[in-house]
User: Which sequence fits this backbone?
């Protein structure tokens, strides 16, 4: 079920161990899904896909997830309809399973050490991957410690990701401009065999 979404992104991989996938962008009109962009070649986690993801496993999580209503990026707003947060020094993603803010965006004073550790990312320093990104709402409501964090739809770096989905910049910008939070956009990630069942 697509949970009332009228915008849908599908990420289909040929199998669990592959690091590339086919990404397509769909809109629901008059009760039917129609392809509006793609399919495009996307990259997924360096270990492929996982039905049971955990922190640090390098896999992209399978399933259907909302896409966050804020787009982030080091670059200027590329013209998105969602809220846009331009990253600055001190903007982090908390990836420490023992932290109360696990799997959330955190801003701390520039130049100070964060109160969380783990694999937490200094977002403003990822100058290629995070020129702009949307958040895949994986492991939220509730956040389960250790189940994985910071699953983004971001710029292709030329390599598989640590669990995110990446696209070449022109395609990513097209997708980010297309997103409308009011349409409850959903992303579905899976193998060709399982994606039909989500």
Assistant:
């Amino acid at each position: 079920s697509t949970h009332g979404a009228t915008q849908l992104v599908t990420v289909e991989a040929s199998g669990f161990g592959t690091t590339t996938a086919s990404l397509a962008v769909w809109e629901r009109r008059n009760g039917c899904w129609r392809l509006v962009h793609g399919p495009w070649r996307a990259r997924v986690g360096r270990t492929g896909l996982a039905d049971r993801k955990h922190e640090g496993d390098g896999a992209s999580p399978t399933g259907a997830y909302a896409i966050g209503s804020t787009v982030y990026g080091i670059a200027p707003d590329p013209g998105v309809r969602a809220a846009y947060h331009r990253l600055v020094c001190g903007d982090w993603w908390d990836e420490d399973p023992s932290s109360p803010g696990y799997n959330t965006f955190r801003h701390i004073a520039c130049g100070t050490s964060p109160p969380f550790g783990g694999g937490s990312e200094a977002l403003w320093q990822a100058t290629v991957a995070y020129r702009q990104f949307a958040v895949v709402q994986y492991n939220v409501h509730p956040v389960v410690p250790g189940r994985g964090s910071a699953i983004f739809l971001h710029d292709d770096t030329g390599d598989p990701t640590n669990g995110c989905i990446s696209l070449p910049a022109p395609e990513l910008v097209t997708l980010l401009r297309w997103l409308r939070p009011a349409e409850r956009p959903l992303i579905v990630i899976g193998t060709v065999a399982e994606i039909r069942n989500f």
